[in-house]
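A reminder from the course coordinator: this example appears on the midterm review sheet, so study it carefully.

Given structure:
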């Protein structure tokens, strides 16, 4: 709430300045409120893309602009010169998109700019664009009524667990890289549209960042468990099938995480014991009748096995890439800022999942 209030005060101050100078509404009409920014770099050329929402009151479509240069400042200068009919207002930027090539080469340029720019806030959420450039995502998504700004306003609906918030800001990304040498950066990609529909956006997993660049990706199906291992409390659904072929939808919630390092008497780290407790709610079933006790026990075992498989896959990727993107060094007594050097082949993980399965009536059965 506080950051929204600050943004409103900043915007109001600009409006008041325009009015006091005698320009009145004419000055306001010449202010382009930018809410999304994208960055790409190809062969040393930096492309900065900007987007503003549609103006329904004047029936104006979303604005999409691009500028190029060797630096961000130079690219923005080209944008300002090319948008002579409007003054660019950048403090309103609410999301930053980074193209895949830039993310896989070097994040220092966009992160340094975001953390040092007097025009942009340090709490701007940052996403990488998987399989494409940020420019193409801004340019090609949406239609004449909605652009990338409108499509990203409800980001919670994009991800499997509805928990892309709290978003990863540039400042938090920088902090995690300095503290642990690694981080997980949320990824987006375009979702191809059916005939007559606008191109949309969907969550595309998490990019594993090490040494300032993306070295691997976690798929979207693993994202909720990865957030769980980061100490967050995601809520997400899964459709699973038990040994009798019954397909059901489970909602996982209320997770708790416990991480304990294992060390020898000499203090050498040998591994981690990681346990998770959570609730699995039965939302609906595709079989006839309600499941009995034996079937509920089988479903609980299936749910626990699914979480264990994903935990193992995530931790194996952390060890294989030598990237402490889960911040495991935080749990090591006497361990300072880490760089993942403790993630060796000799390190073992003992995993445990304990779930409580509860039945929840599917309210859709009561709908006419």
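Designed residues:
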């Amino acid at each position: 709430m506080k950051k929204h209030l600050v943004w409103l005060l900043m915007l109001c101050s600009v409006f008041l300045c325009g009015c006091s100078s005698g320009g009145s509404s004419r000055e306001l009409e010449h202010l382009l409120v930018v809410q999304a920014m994208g960055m790409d770099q190809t062969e040393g050329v930096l492309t900065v893309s900007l987007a503003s929402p549609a103006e329904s009151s004047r029936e104006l479509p979303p604005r999409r602009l691009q500028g190029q240069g060797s630096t961000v400042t130079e690219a923005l200068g080209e944008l300002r010169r090319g948008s002579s009919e409007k003054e660019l207002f950048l403090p309103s930027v609410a999301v930053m998109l980074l193209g895949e090539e830039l993310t896989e080469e070097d994040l220092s340029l966009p992160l340094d700019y975001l953390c040092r720019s007097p025009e942009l806030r340090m709490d701007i959420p940052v996403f990488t664009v998987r399989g494409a450039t940020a420019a193409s995502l801004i340019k090609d998504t949406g239609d004449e009524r909605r652009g990338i700004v409108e499509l990203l306003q409800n980001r919670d609906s994009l991800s499997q667990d509805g928990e892309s918030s709290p978003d990863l800001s540039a400042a938090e990304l920088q902090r995690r890289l300095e503290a642990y040498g690694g981080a997980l950066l949320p990824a987006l990609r375009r979702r191809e549209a059916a005939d007559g529909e606008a191109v949309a956006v969907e969550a595309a997993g998490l990019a594993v960042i090490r040494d300032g660049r993306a070295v691997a990706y976690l798929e979207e199906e693993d994202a909720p468990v990865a957030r769980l291992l980061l100490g967050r409390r995601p809520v997400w659904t899964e459709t699973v099938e038990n040994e009798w072929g019954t397909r059901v939808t489970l909602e996982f919630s209320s997770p708790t995480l416990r991480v304990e390092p294992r060390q020898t008497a000499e203090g050498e780290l040998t591994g981690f014991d990681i346990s998770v407790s959570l609730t699995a709610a039965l939302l609906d079933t595709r079989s006839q009748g309600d499941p009995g006790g034996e079937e509920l026990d089988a479903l609980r075992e299936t749910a626990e096995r699914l979480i264990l498989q994903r935990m193992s896959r995530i931790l194996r990727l952390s060890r294989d890439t030598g990237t402490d993107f889960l911040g495991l060094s935080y749990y090591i007594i006497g361990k300072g800022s880490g760089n993942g050097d403790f993630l060796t082949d000799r390190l073992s993980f003992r995993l445990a999942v304990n779930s409580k399965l509860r039945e929840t009536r599917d309210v859709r059965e009561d709908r006419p």
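The longest strand covers residues 247-263. Residues 293-321 form the longest helix (29 residues).
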